[in-house]
DNA sequence: GTTGAGCGTT
């Protein structure tokens, strides 16, 4: 059996991890030793550069077909906290403040599928490897004190929360899932959509798309008809939308104002014969595909469903979907088309998050009959676009 | 003492 030497960071003491018979290393094997890790990289001896290890379907592939993993010492890749580099200094302080308010807020997370035997102490102990645990509780039957098999955790850092949401968890011998609780609703999630006021009639969808694409990928543009001097622009990344709010921008010589696309529930309902379907409950984060009618201009790659992260972030979306990113046309590459690279760039963490959700490592789990975590009947198939609600107008 | 999709007596 081949072993792969892996350390958490370059220079650390490596641990030898067993590779599979086909030479690949299961991401789940990696994550069992390095919770929260999402991939591997190594230092290339010749070029001195760091190279990433290919990752697909929950498996990591050796750099060389012939010599396998070789004598390299690999080190872990973790989902990055969303950081931007060069363009950070271009940003004004209000946008920064807004991001901190919206991005770095932790919420209670629900842990489903806990073994009956798990205690609040062991729950806390497990999650402390991800970061500071502010709260860990098990829901119990009041009379018997028996665990109901789920609980809640709260982390002190958003990064820890992100890492936890991006993985499944083997807790006291059972695979559990961690999600943002439904009870949180859509309340304080970060919208992807902005309101663009002071538009003139000659600013069309293409103009808006072209202009705003330089800040990040635009997934939708909506201009009410007849002309009403405003429009809506939806971004793939809610942070990009947030960072633009409050700003004035000049498009075709016109100063437009960007602000929050405040929900206008009642007044917009059934306006002009359109019906507004609101995403509620579990479908948060997935307003998906806009029907190609009306004034929505889908992002060019028509014919496929597009997935945007209307609420929360990519990772919580991933978590909500069992870690699978098999939705159609999920695009992780950030700023499309514009110059300048965008405000946020391509830092969606952990695109290898489609990890581990295969039969192979589910079979290794649990002490129950079929050995699978709740909600995962072997495969996590919740997100394949087909069951996304179709949101026709999406006024938020 | 059993059980296995869900959503929190504050």
From TrEMBL:
Residues 264-305, 338-396 are annotated as: Disordered. Residues 107-183, 192-263 form the RRM domain. It is found in: Mitochondrion; Nucleus. It comes from the Eukaryota. It holds the Pfam family RRM_1. GO terms for cellular component: chromatin; mitochondrion; nucleoplasm. Residues 345-358, 375-389 have a biased composition (Low complexity). The keyword Phosphoprotein does not apply. Its main location: mitochondrion. GO terms for biological process: mRNA processing; regulation of gene expression; RNA splicing. Residues 270-285, 360-371 have a biased composition (Polar residues). Keywords: DNA-binding, Mitochondrion, mRNA processing, mRNA splicing, Nucleus, Repeat, Repressor, RNA-binding, Transcription, Transcription regulation. GO terms for molecular function: double-stranded DNA binding; RNA binding. This is TAR DNA-binding protein 43. It comes from Drosophila willistoni (Fruit fly).
């Amino acid at each position: 059996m081949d072993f792969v030497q892996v350390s958490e960071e370059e220079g650390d003491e490596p641990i030898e991890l067993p590779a599979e018979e086909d030479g690949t290393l299961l991401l789940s094997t990696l994550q069992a030793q390095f919770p929260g890790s999402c991939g591997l990289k190594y230092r290339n001896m010749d070029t001195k550069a760091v190279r990433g290890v290919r990752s697909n379907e929950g498996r990591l592939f050796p750099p060389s077909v012939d010599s396998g993993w070789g004598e390299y010492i690999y080190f872990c890749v973790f989902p990055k906290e969303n950081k931007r580099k060069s363009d950070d200094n271009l940003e004004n302080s209000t946008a920064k403040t807004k991001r901190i308010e919206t991005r770095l807020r932790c919420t209670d997370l629900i842990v489903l599928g806990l073994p009956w035997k798990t205690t609040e102490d062991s729950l806390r102990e497990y999650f402390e490897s991800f970061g500071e645990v502010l709260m860990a509780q098990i829901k119990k039957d009041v009379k018997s004190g028996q665990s109901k098999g789920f609980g809640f955790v709260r982390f002190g850092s958003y990064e820890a929360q992100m890492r936890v949401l991006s993985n499944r968890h083997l807790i006291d011998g059972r695979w559990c899932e961690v999600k943002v609780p439904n009870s949180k609703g859509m309340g304080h999630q970060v919208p992807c959509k902005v309101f663009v006021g002071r538009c003139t009639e000659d600013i069309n969808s293409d103009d808006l798309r072209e202009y705003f694409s330089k800040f990040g990928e635009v997934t939708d543009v909506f201009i009410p008809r007849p002309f009403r001097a405003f429009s809506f622009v939806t971004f793939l990344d809610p942070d990009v939308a947030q960072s633009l709010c409050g700003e004035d921008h000049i498009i075709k010589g016109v100063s437009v104002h960007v602000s929050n696309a405040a929900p206008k529930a009642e007044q917009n309902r059934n306006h002009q014969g359109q019906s507004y379907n609101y995403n509620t409950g579990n479908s948060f984060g997935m307003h998906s595909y806009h029907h190609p009618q009306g004034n929505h201009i889908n992002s060019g790659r028509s014919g496929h469903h597009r997935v945007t992260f209307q609420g929360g972030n990519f990772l919580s979306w991933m978590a909500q979907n069992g870690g699978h990113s098999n939705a159609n046309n999920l695009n992780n590459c950030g700023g499309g088309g514009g110059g300048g690279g965008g405000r946020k760039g391509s830092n969606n963490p952990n695109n290898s998050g489609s990890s581990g959700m295969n039969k192979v490592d589910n079979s290794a789990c649990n002490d129950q009959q079929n050995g699978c975590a709740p909600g995962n009947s072997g495969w996590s198939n919740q997100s394949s676009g087909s069951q996304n609600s179709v949101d026709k107008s999406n006024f938020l």
